[in-house]
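Exercise 3.2. Students should predict the tertiary structure of the chain below and write it as structure tokens, then compare their answer with the key that follows.

Predict this chain's 3D structure.
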Amino acid sequence: MRIIVSGGGTGGHIYPAITLIQAIRERVPEARFLYVGTSRGLEADIVPKEGIPFDTIELQGFERRLTLANFTRGFKAIAGLKKARRIVKEFRPDVAIGTGGYVCGPILLAASLMKVPALIQEQNVLPGITNRILSKFVTKIAVGAEAALKHFPREKAVFTGNPIRRAVMEASREDGLKEFGFDGDKLIVLVSGGSRGARAINRAMVPVLKEAKERDDVQFLHVTGKGEYEDIMNRLREAGVELSKAPHIRVEPYLYDMPKAMAMADLAVFRAGATGIAELTARGVPAILVPYPYASENHQEHNARALQEKGAARMILNKDLTAETLGDTLRELLSKPDELKNMAAASRQMGRPNAADDIADIVMKIAKR
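Answer key:
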């Protein structure tokens, strides 16, 4: 079996693709894969390290207004589609899979036009325009959120959830406590704005941690992102927070073992990216979600709202985020164990820990034999 996989730009598109590849390999060990991305995206670094053959298409996403740059990008898109057709023709795949990012558009379109079965893995509650257009051509759409079904042809769309790393479900609370040196008898709050960090969340947390240093009944693991770390450490020092004297507070630039952190968390403060939400709900971790306001078509707010409506999360819009709003919400939830328990149950009910296996089964069914 030969499979083309495309998805890029951010880890939220790349890691689900790699997880899918692993799930398919478990079913068909001899399967051959070709991953198509761009030379500028994170995939150019991550995918080859996984031992997966990698090819590139050079193109950029369009701006949402008429600009000279869009004309240049239009020519690149045409060239990208031509190269995508050549890649599909030469590799002769039995199926093509796209997990998001503008790079997967030409590949899925070329594959569909060349009668190769194709699958979109749509991660968000509100799909982008590219996937809505592609849905008219592809064979199947695996959606990560039930609310996304209404945006696609009924006969093609299937609610599967989003693929998550196996390590997310394999990690135990004990693993996390041992890794980070926390007390399992006290509540643990995990704060992260993603690998690059979220300045708004980081800065709102400084006064929260200043208050938290005076009480050790709640423990905090705050992941700032590498680019934000020095600034936040300086702000904490200026606020009089000496981390050496507050072992119940840990501030890290980056975590290489986020699954263990999630496994021990009683509450999370996160952005509302689809992959982060998929991992939180698979573990049943209640959350305070702060959607990134500049995400395409504001899809993070739609993601967060879906969890809030089910009782699995609280949402604070970025424009409303302050130390006061975040601190008040944290204090309220941490003082109500029954509400946290109900939120955890709602989160777990929304989780789809077997999404990668379910999508792999769909791929097997639609692949040309």
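Discussion points: DSSP finds 15 helices and 13 strands in the chain. The CA atoms of residues 126 and 164 lie 19 Å apart.
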